[in-house]
Design brief:
Blueprint: H1 2-8, E1 16-19, E2 26-28, E3 35-38, H2 44-56, E4 114-117, E5 120-126, H3 142-155, E6 159-163, E7 168-170, E8 175-183, E9 192-197, E10 200-201, E11 209-214, E12 221-229, E13 244-252, E14 257-260, E15 264-265, E16 271-278, E17 283-288, E18 295-300, E19 306-311, E20 320-324
Parallel strand pairs: 1-3, 7-13
Antiparallel strand pairs: 2-3, 4-5, 6-8, 8-11, 9-10, 9-12, 12-13, 14-16, 15-16, 16-19, 17-18, 17-20
């Protein structure tokens, strides 16, 4: 079956196999890769349950014994009774909920530590009295819902695209730059966005687009970044920080600068000098005899950061030369 999926549906993330059988039931394939359900009336609840296994590696919360069942904890099962060691402790109200938690009507909607899970009637615990991982007619509990949301974000990131597509940019002149995000928005709420310049948050910059004017200066690289996060109340513990994503651009806004090496005299009386530095818009070589009046004699561009100019033998020793970037 897995070979057929790879051949015909190589990009499938959640395969579901429907069995043409009137017997009410469901399963996964044992590797938490494929959900399996019969087509009997009402079997859709098994698809939901098996998706919990496949997507979030959730464990069964059954109390029926299963000899040889692996004693491996899942996000919703544990043998721990020490509060600090309970992986879903963020969901437990310690002021009102005892640990372990009695299975009474008082705690019917509360998260706690309820005994009976992982095919054990004792010694194993689940987060809530009822959940789709143990009672097919129930929705996923808070802890399993959290695990499912986290599993989604391991597959799909909040930022689906951004512009500029290049994250290393260079400016040749002061200009306004616009940065834009394309987000994968949840159906129930918007993702939060905060833009930063050189690590400092920009007040009010919380939209999917951010425009900033960047000038040229000796400071060099300016960093522009956007932090996107899903503030869903379905997640209280995100140890991997997986609900957040940061996109970052580095903008090289260093000012143009030029240097002239000392001239080298050539055998025929001419001479050459080298111009080095950074001048994305090119530069002008000018000459003067009095440092007051300058005449343009050539316009050029640096190649790999340098340019060599050769002057004719008619140049007099009283001439001066300079290289200047355009205004």
């Amino acid at each position: 079956m897995d070979a057929l999926l790879q051949t015909n549906l190589p990009n499938c993330h959640l395969p579901i196999l429907l069995v043409n059988d009137i017997v009410f039931g469901g399963s996964d394939d044992g590797s938490n890769l494929t959900g399996i359900a019969a087509t009997a009336s009402g079997s859709s609840i098994f698809v939901i349950h098996e998706c919990g296994h496949v997507l979030a590696n959730l464990g069964d919360e059954y109390t029926s014994e299963f000899p040889g069942y692996p004693d491996t904890e899942e996000p919703n099962t544990t043998t721990q009774t020490n509060f600090d060691a309970i992986k879903w402790k963020a969901w437990i109200n310690t002021n009102t909920t005892p640990i372990p938690t009695p299975e009474t009507a008082t705690y019917i909607n509360d998260a706690g530590l309820f005994e009976g899970a992982h095919h054990h009637s004792d010694g194993w615990y689940r987060p809530q009295i009822n959940c789709a991982m143990g009672n097919f007619s129930s929705p996923f509990c808070a802890v399993c819902s959290e695990a499912l949301v986290l599993s989604f974000y391991r597959q799909v990131r909040p930022v689906d695209g951004f512009t500029p597509a290049a994250t290393n940019l260079s400016l040749a002149s002061p200009q306004m730059l616009t940065f834009t995000l394309k987000l994968v928005q949840p159906a129930t709420h918007d993702l939060t966005v905060q833009w930063f310049t050189n690590g400092i948050s920009s007040v009010g910059a919380t939209n999917q687009s951010f425009a900033v004017e960047l000038g040229l200066g000796a400071g060099g690289v300016t960093n522009v970044s956007a932090r996107v996060k899903d503030e869903t109340p379905l997640v209280r513990t995100d140890s991997e920080n997986i609900l957040a994503q940061t996109v970052m651009w580095n903008v090289n806004a260093a000012a143009p600068h030029l240097n002239l090496d000392l001239p080298v005299w050539l055998p025929d009386g001419a001479f050459s000098f080298r111009v080095t530095g950074s001048a994305p818009l090119g530069f002008v070589i000018e000459s003067s005899t009095n440092f007051l009046d300058w005449t343009s004699i050539a316009t050029n561009f640096l190649t790999l950061g340098e340019f060599t100019s050769t002057n004719s033998a008619t140049a007099s020793s009283g001439q001066f030369f300079r290289a200047r970037t355009p205004p």
